[in-house]
Each structure stands twice: as C-alpha cells, then as structure tokens.
C-alpha cells in the first residue's frame, strides 16, 4: 500500500494505491479526508521506530515529489519569515521578527549565502549572513533535501542541518533542525496578504511537532519592524560575496 499527497490544479488530494487480487487500484481522496489517518500512521510510526528513524523523514514520504533544497534556496529571493518552531523557546526573544532570503548563490557549486535580519524593537535592525550548502540524506531522494548552515561560534566553525520536510517553494516551507526543531517559514507577501500560515505547511508542522509551538513572528509587532519592511528582495544582480566579519551582537555574522 502506498499513500502520497499529490498537487492537482486548484486543490490538493491524496493518492492511495493498493494491490487487490493482483491488480493495482488508485483512488483519489481530498486531503481533508485523510488527515486523521495520516496523524495516526505518523504517531504510530514515530512511537514504534524512534530508535532507528525519525518522524520527520517519514512525513516527506507521503508526498508525491520529494523536497528539493536547492530549488527552495533559488526561490528565496524575497524574505521568508520564521513564524513558529517547536524547540528552544528563547529564539523568539533573542531574534524576534526573524526573516531571511538569499544574498548570493553559486549555481555550479550549489552553495549560497543566506541574508537574515531581526528587530528587537521598532528602531533597531540586526543583520547577518551565513553560507549554506546542500546535502542529500539518502540516495533514495532525487534531490538534496537538507540545507547545511555554516555557523561560526567563538571562532569555531560549526555546521547544522536544516531538513526540508515540505515546501511549495513560493509561499511557505517546513524545516527541521536540532536547535529549532520543526519550524515554519512563510513568504513575506503571504504574511502581508493573508496573515496566516498556508494550510499544508500548517498541517505538516502539526503532524511533526504535535502541538509544540514557540512564536517568533508576532504580527502585531513585526508588521511594522524594520526586519519586515527593509531589504525585502535580493538585488537583481547578486553581488560578489565579501569577507565576513564577526558581529558584536550574540556572535552572529554580519555582512
């Protein structure tokens, strides 16, 4: 039996394929009708196999097309903002109204630099840039499904993997990392126009995080802060990357 979520014109549906008496039968259900089944399957799988695999890996298996981390990076030419995440509840106070986009990409190397910014208050803007590269967790995936972020902490180089659980590449993305847990990033334009997380990103997050949520993007405050209103889009001509210097704030890298 195989269950996958398939995008179709104007809607999302679930394709259920099952072999019956040697014949393969395919039935399409609206995604709303399968939510309960997915939830039970995911939680049972997580409980039964927690020592050998993680629940996040199983989520992407339900989708017809596996995630493409490099495609997501290439589409992030406008700000995506971190709305909420499941681990480390201090992030919202340390880096409130956090948004990020591509500042430079090297297509042949499949590497990039991600520009990020956050605003602790109405007047302050703190910025930084981090180099990233792509990684494939399993050769069964067609594309790289992780974004490896290169950090520098106290002059020590560290890497952290952000696995792409689900994305539609244009409105939102659900990622998972050790430090933040499961996280939802939403395109600035979507937040501006709709003021909510797109349905499928919300669904995938709920299945993965199971009601754990720490808010980072508070609409009441963030909509007017500089991290949401400035440096919105990558320049048409991407600049040559410059040498990075340490920022005086919290060990972040600055442009």
From TrEMBL:
Spans traversing the lipid bilayer: 21-42
Keywords on record: Membrane, Transmembrane, Transmembrane helix
Listed Gene3D superfamilies: 2.40.128.20
Entry keyword annotation includes Iron: no
Sequence ranges of Basic and acidic residues compositional bias: 244-255
Domain of life of the organism encoding this protein: Eukaryota
The protein's name: Uncharacterized protein
């Amino acid at each position: 039996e195989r269950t996958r979520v398939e995008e179709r014109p104007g809607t999302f549906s679930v394709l259920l394929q099952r072999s019956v008496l040697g014949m393969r039968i395919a039935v399409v259900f609206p995604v709303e009708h399968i939510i309960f089944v997915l939830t039970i399957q995911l939680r049972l799988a997580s409980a039964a196999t927690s020592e050998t695999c993680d629940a996040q890996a199983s989520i992407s298996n339900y989708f017809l097309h596996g995630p493409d981390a490099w495609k997501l990076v290439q589409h992030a030419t406008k700000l995506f903002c971190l709305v909420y995440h499941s681990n480390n509840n201090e992030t919202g106070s340390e880096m409130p109204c956090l948004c990020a986009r591509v500042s430079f990409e090297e297509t042949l190397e499949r590497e990039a630099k991600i520009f990020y910014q956050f605003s602790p208050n109405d007047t302050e803007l703190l910025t930084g840039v981090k180099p990233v590269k792509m990684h494939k967790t399993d050769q069964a995936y067609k594309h790289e499904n992780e974004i490896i972020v290169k950090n520098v902490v106290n002059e020590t180089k560290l890497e952290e993997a952000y696995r792409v659980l689900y994305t539609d590449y244009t409105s939102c993305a659900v990622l998972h990392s050790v430090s933040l847990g499961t996280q939802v990033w939403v395109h600035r334009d979507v937040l501006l126009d709709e003021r909510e997380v797109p349905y499928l990103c919300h669904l995938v997050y709920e299945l993965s995080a199971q009601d754990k949520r720490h808010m980072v993007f508070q609409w009441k405050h963030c909509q007017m802060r500089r991290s949401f209103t400035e440096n919105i889009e990558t320049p048409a001509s991407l600049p040559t990357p410059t040498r990075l210097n340490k920022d005086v704030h919290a060990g972040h890298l600055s442009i």
